[in-house]
Design a protein that fits this description.
single chain; about 90 residues; mainly alpha; DUF4235
């Protein structure tokens, strides 16, 4: 495997991470708010505070899952090739 293969691999890992993050957020929101779906920014039935909190929680979960999946992908690449992706 060479470093040129890492970029497409990282895209796949990133896409899977995005799907996972969406599922994690949906479960967290359901448990915390007791609702199936988080409010959209244009949802008139929610307050500013509810919309901003939902967005902040979603952003934090997506960032954490993205970092974890990118790190796992880099470690997996290193184990498979002996090289760190950014070297």
């Amino acid at each position: 495997m060479n470093k040129a293969l890492y970029k497409p691999l990282s895209w796949v890992v990133g896409a899977l991470g995005g799907i996972l993050a969406g599922q994690v957020f949906k479960q967290v929101w359901k448990r915390v708010a007791g609702e199936e779906d988080a409010p959209d920014a244009t949802d008139r039935d929610y307050t500013w505070q509810q919309v901003i909190i939902a967005a902040a929680v979603q952003g934090a979960i997506f960032a954490a899952v993205k970092a974890a999946t990118e790190r796992a992908g880099a470690i997996g690449y290193q184990k498979a090739t002996g090289d760190w992706p950014d070297d």
